[in-house]
Design goal:
The structure holds two protein chains of two kinds. Helices cover about 20% and strands about 35% of the residues of chain A. Chain A is built from five helices and 16 strands. By secondary structure, chain B is mostly helical. Chain B is about 75% helix and about 0% strand. Chain B contains seven helices and no strands. Chain B starts with a helix and ends with a helix. Classes of the chains: A alpha+beta, B mainly alpha. Chains A and B meet through α1, β9 and β12 of A and α1, α2, α4 and α5 of B.
Amino acid sequence: MPEPFDALRRPSERVGPDPDFAAELRDNLRRVILNGADMTTTSEAPASTAELRSLTPYLAVSDARAALDFYVEVFGAVRRGEPILMDDGRIGHAELAIGDAVLMLAEEYPEIGHVAPQAGGASVRVEVPDADVSVARALELGATLIRAVSDSSYGRGGSFRDPFGQRWLVSQASPKPEPQPKQGESMYFTFQVPDAEPAKTFYGAVLGWQFSPGSTEGAWGIEGHGRPGGLWGGPGRQVGWKLMFAVDDLDAALTRVGEQGGQAGEVENHPYGLTADCTDNQGIEFWLWQQPAGRE
Amino acid sequence: MRPDPAFALLGLYETALPEVYGYLLSRCGDRTLAEELTSETFLGAVAACRKEYAPPVSTGWLIGVARHKLADHWRRKEREERGLRLVADSTVSDQDVVDPWDERLDALRARQVLESLGSHHRAALTLRYVDGLGVPEVAGHLGRSVHATEALLVRARAAFRRAYEEKEGRDA
């Protein structure tokens, strides 16, 4: 019997999400798949990638304790270790992680010329997930606006002077382009063995690899660092490592395989791209892979 | 040897993302929440597709994962709202309204009403009517027995109808 509630039925429709979100999720997904990390829970904080890079700002601030709180609140900075407290009560050194970079600071020490600028001075450019939110919070906490957040040809951003004398160029972080596989790069491997169990025992003990059940009997996903790969146990296959290489144009590559005395296999169309099994001119098996169209 | 099935997930990402996100957005009506649940869906799918006997990775399968994430979300939310509901539910008794109801629903108003309901009612009605699942499937998603789900659906329909008629009165 039809009922009025049937009017609620709604087939799902395609909606493209925010491109920044899409790029970030793609990166996370890639990382989870390639690192073989167990991500059944997504609540754990990502490990910080902050470390000393080629350039690290070292600030002189008027009130280091307040400044540390301010940068945590405004930039989402994370404290690195305990500040070094001097005998006179001033903070002699402190570090914060902001994104993948480190910020160092100390209280003013006029005796060695370590003083906060009274006016003007250098600016530090900082990338944040949301420039509007960061700048608004900074102003609430006593910063002075230099340039309101706006869109420009270098992205969205603004600038302010914080209550401790520092000038900041706040930029909305843009997604980093995903590195594209290059022709000849190995993307994946299978390790073909007469029997999967001894191989799992051996490589588990030697390299610490773990194995997740694959889609077919005798097939195992290898979970470890580096190039993703799979283990295939059972008779009837060439024993050894079989690498999958990226190519820009699979058809052209298969022609070259034939010209050079190799055997080119049939092209298979998979969701993850086009592949073909091949054999080189000495009978060693490998695969070729071309990434799906529209992902360049 | 076929590659890690999760590899297929990456390959499918560009096509499946608008489907999964569109599904979630139309059901939860909140971009931030839809993004959160979309992340949970794809990241959760990595482990799920590597399980033995997991079905092949496809957009349809991912929508199923998304539906589970959405139902989980509503269950968490329901626990938070439970205190509130004890009060609210006492005002909607099953006898308040007779179940056969032959109103032709205005789609937009119906959607707004659905969004205004408590999580437990919203979850039951969305899975049953918006997604068109059978009662046993709805029960599976909500972690309730079929009997309890039927009772919940009766109360949810009553709450919906009340809110709809109230809104109709206001909008008219």
